[in-house]
## 1
Amino acid sequence: MTTRIVELRRGILKKNDELAAGLRDRFTTAGVLVLNLVSSPGTGKTSFLERTLRELGARGVRAAALVGDLETDNDARRLASSGAPVRQINTHGICHLDAEMLGRHLETWEGVSLEGLNYLFIENVGNLVCPSSYDLGERIRVVLLSVTEGEDKPLKYPGLFNSADAAVITKIDLAVPCSFDRELALKNINEIRPGIRIFETSAKTGAGMDEWLAYLAELAQPS
Amino acid sequence: MHELSIAASIVDAVTESASVYPGAHVKEVRLRVGALASVVEDSLQFCWELATEGTPLAGAALVINKLPVIVHCDSCGVDAEIEGVQSFRCPRCGEPAADLRQGRELEIESIELEEPEPKELEIGAPNPVEEQL
């Protein structure tokens, strides 16, 4: 027997990365700004997104959402009450969305064209580990953290927090009963992702939503 | 638990690359995995066994070469390795360093193949090595 070493130097998720690059091109051509929302289960992604869609709708901005979940279309039904087009992606046990799933659901989304949208939100499966490896072609990755989860979440999940472009703290209306240490949370986020934009919000009271919507408008400005 | 998807992707990629060398047996697969790649080594090893079972890759060793995080410090103007993944600051001056130069890698670096000597090939079977010659 002889031994041969073959250098490959190829990305393990090369297929996903290639599909994501294709999606990114499509989004750019269509002029739609795509955001990928990632958090643990129970952070309040759906409530935050529902409020965002409602506020954008009220301002005449066209937005839509793709929602990933292991099972059920509960989140899609909640989001659809905002009036925005919403499509559910059930992953049936897979812990993250990937570019193939996204592309397939975009292809078959009746009545929705990317060209007709200003924003497309992707609500990822609730998970702070796996989604970090899967590029979906998004321009902005948003990590969400609720005041009920503990201020050290960024330190526990550095892979995801470090890959994010913006961070949203949710449920700030519960900060006092949860003895949430705001300074510590901000410090931890900044240790993992120095200089990241941070928004402190409550989908219930609407606190912080104006700043978040202003950020969305700023992103849509031609650079 | 996306290690199973990752293991399956490695199996696909290695099978494709090894098919260029007929008769070769994959002995080892070497990966480069950054400290921020969100991959748990034990879990990936476990899933590797599952994913290769019953395939030509069964029994192949998976060697994971872990890469530390390297950041670029704007103040010092140099790339520096940081210890751990709990604080993204320049180890020289202590300033926050957001510019990541290494740490997200999730790559197959190389594969080690065992190839039969020409004489070990079955008599009468096509010998791709000789045909190429």
## 2
Amino acid sequence: MARGSGSQDPTTRGHMAGQSLGRIDDTVLVREAQRGNHAAFEELVRHYDQAVLRLAMHLTGSDTEAQDIYQDAFLKAYKSVGNFRFECSFYTWIYRIVTNLCLDHLRKRQVRKEDAPVAVDAQGEQYDVLDQVPDGRAASNPERDLMARELGSRINRALEKLTPRERMVFELKHYHGLKLRTVGEILNTTEETAKNTLFRATQKLRGALADMR
Amino acid sequence: MKCEWVQENIMLYIYNELADDARYELEQHLGRCTDCAAELKASRKFHGTISQFPVDEPTPNLLAASRMRLQEALETTQQGGFWHRFVFDPAAWFHQIRFSPALAAVIFIIGFAGGIGATYKIVSGNPGIKETTAQPVQSSITGIRSISQDTGNNQISIKYDTVSTQEAQGSLNDQRIQQLLLFAARNNYNSGVRMDSVDLLTQQPNDTHVREALMYALRYDSNPGVRLKALDGLGPYVKNDVRVRDAVLEALVNDSNPGVRTEALRLLEPVRADSSVRLVLKKLAESDQNQYIRSQARTALAQLPEID
């Protein structure tokens, strides 16, 4: 389902191809898990947990919060695996659980944002004070590292300005290389809506990063 | 084809999301229209800028810690949904019979009669019912005083405190002895007693509860000697039990004692090709503070075949 697109980098492609192979025996494992086989469920977790953690980490920007989402998602999946009716792939189903939890998290964070430690830079633009905390790790090229960090911070701030749904579509498409049809299935919407959301997300991001081009 | 349509779909083109015919038409249009060609160039540049920052993969430590935490939670979580249909739910049942007075009356009469019958039997002194003698209930045990094993007859002797000190004797197969040993491995304040109990439990690691107690000792016991003993007992199961493998991996990554970590590294030898083990080895080889662990991890990695 999640075939890598031509524009993806080779590592992402390899990762997704590996996941496709892993899904061949998902049906057997899901049936076993439905019979109460603990080990089968753990094997299913191992097929997808790295991708789940990766998605949660990038969306929350925090290892601890990502771990909480990971935990909640798989516990929820474990409790309701008996209701899984094979109407979609297990892969889509688990991603649906994770994206719902992440969307809740993003929505809550948007509400809390008013209390975030923000400051105003020389151009009058707001930035998160926590982004400016220096990274203690050693760098081989401090100047390049500084520029890269500045660019990374700008991209993060631009991503934060998207609505939770736009952020999720962009995240799944750009960083996870999923097809928009799959993104639509995961988010319980149509491919067309996912396309429109991606369009809006990229327009906003381009606007926010316009001076960097 | 209009420029407006092209500009709305140019990102889909870059993400390889256009159908073949739309893709062909868009490419034809780009060849003719300089504005749209410039838009494609700008969109590609934007895509390139964003792609400079790929998402970091979770570290092996974070992944292992998340798996551990999940496994612990799964042990105490019940599956729901489909199975609930087969589970007796007294609340729902009473809700149903609330509206059936006749059935409710019958059940009440049967219950009443049964109650009278049972009371009559007890009062008349049925010899089948007698007081159980000193069955150790976990909540009533306050601590284990000592554990000893007779070399000759395979008997184990355990002194434990409830309100007053008691003693239980039996073989390792005795359920009461096993229960006390499991209690001692997890709860005792005396590390010598914990060591003795873990040592005895390693003789029966096939039992699920025993294996869980050994994993618990490996993760949480404050005494490195007890952790090493638990590792010894878990060793043969690293290959076939993923949970044991994870516990040993966790010890390799997080244990404060270099001896325990070295032993964990040795035990993982047969499963070095496992992706999670490989990931941990790579991390250790790159940045572990312990020089010996670092060099051993490098050696182990060098012996593994390359994977793309």
